[in-house]
Amino acid sequence: MRVLFVCLGNICRSPTAEGVFRRELEVAGLAHRVEIDSCGIGDWHVGKAPDTRAAAAARRRGIDLSELRARQLAAEDFSRFDYLLAMDHDNLAALRQQCPDGCGAHIGLFLDFAGEVDRPVPDPYYGGEQGFEEVLDLIEAASRGLVEEIAQRLEELRH
């Protein structure tokens, strides 16, 4: 099973989602069965580490983002990943526009897995520290819901 988190520049929301989701998979004992990555729609930050404020907020919750580096969405991501999860409606529209015909991946909003249907993860880039904490709260809730779905799908594949 492969999951790709997508935001605009891949320095705040999507790397945070990658780090949080990795921890949730470890807690559930599924880390060895799921590949995780993150990317941005745009190319402005390719090769850069996550935003220092995002990394600091994650670190306060025991999540290390220091090894992550931004990359841009690639055409092969649509065939490589089972889930391409957008942080907001603009990211989702870009994914749908670039998605090739016949793509079997689940493409949707990440917060759908938190029961927050049609709600975006707000971009904390231009705000204060509280925005990064809110993003973490939302991402933690969605990560738990996504782990539940993936655990169920993996169990179904075993039978």
TrEMBL record:
Give every Phosphotyrosine protein phosphatase I domain span. Answer: 1-149
What InterPro entries does the annotation carry? LMW_PTPase, Ptyr_pPase, Ptyr_pPase_sf, Tyr_phospatase_low_mol_wt
Keyword vocabulary terms for this entry? Hydrolase, Protein phosphatase
* Enzyme Commission number(s): 3.1.3.48
Q: Which Pfam families match?
A: LMWPc
Q: According to the UniProt record, what class of enzyme is this?
A: hydrolase
Which top-rank group of organisms is this from? Bacteria
Work out whether the entry's keyword set contains Hydrolase.
Answer: yes
Q: Is Disulfide bond among the key words of this record?
A: no
- SUPFAM superfamilies, sorted: Phosphotyrosine protein phosphatases I
Gene3D superfamilies linked to this entry = 3.40.50.2300
PANTHER family attached to this UniProt entry: LOW MOLECULAR WEIGHT PHOSPHOTYROSINE PROTEIN PHOSPHATASE, LOW MOLECULAR WEIGHT PROTEIN TYROSINE PHOSPHATASE
What family classification does the UniProt entry report for this protein? Belongs to the low molecular weight phosphotyrosine protein phosphatase family.
The name this protein carries in UniProt is: protein-tyrosine-phosphatase
Q: Native species of this protein?
A: Billgrantia antri
